[in-house]
Write a structure and sequence with these properties.
Elements lengths: L3 H10 L7 H11 L7 H11 L3 H10 L11 E6 L2 H5 L2 H12 L12 E6 L11 E3 L2 E3 L4 H15 L1
Parallel strand pairs: 1-2
Antiparallel strand pairs: 1-3, 3-4
């Protein structure tokens, strides 16, 4: 679990106000090494915001950017909207599946990458597109996918 002092800092940055629950959870997840909101963290946040735990879980399970299960260091969100599907979604998915040897919803054995399908990342103008962390990549080709993965692997070394 993320240290409580870190969570307290995040809560304080958002004035301990439950209206900021989504932003709080996104920030908390971003500092969690396994990139998720654990049950302990969800309970801690709920208690400190004086809201029911069910409200925290509603947010965590509704938004594609959040997870209640451990994920890889880099979460690859592959846009599967109609626009991306018309512009090469199937090829992009195949390239990632082949390169990482995982399917959507899975994490690589080394814990570096998780892959999931996402309904929209707001990048229709550069579709097919993906989002990894806060970075959006578009106009994808097999070579560009290989380059992205290579760069992310290199950043780990």
């Amino acid at each position: 679990m993320v240290e409580t002092r870190v969570i307290d800092g995040i809560l304080g940055a958002y004035q301990n106000d439950a209206v900021n629950l989504l932003q709080i959870l996104l920030k908390v997840q971003s500092v969690e090494p396994k990139n998720y909101v654990s049950e302990e963290v969800a309970m801690y946040v709920a208690n400190h915001l004086d809201i029911p735990i069910s409200r925290v879980y509603e947010v965590v399970t509704y938004f594609a950017a959040l997870s209640h299960k451990p994920q890889g260091k880099h979460v690859i969100q592959i846009c599967n909207t109609t626009v991306c599907q018309l512009n090469g979604f199937n090829e992009v998915l195949k390239w990632f599946k082949d390169a990482l040897k995982i399917n959507p919803g899975e994490t690589t054995a080394d814990g570096l990458f998780s892959m999931k399908l996402t309904p929209c990342i707001g990048a229709c103008d550069i579709s097919p597109a993906i989002k990894i962390g806060t970075n959006v990549y578009g106009n994808l080709t097999k070579e560009k996918v290989e380059e992205i993965l290579s760069e992310l692997r290199g950043a780990i070394s």
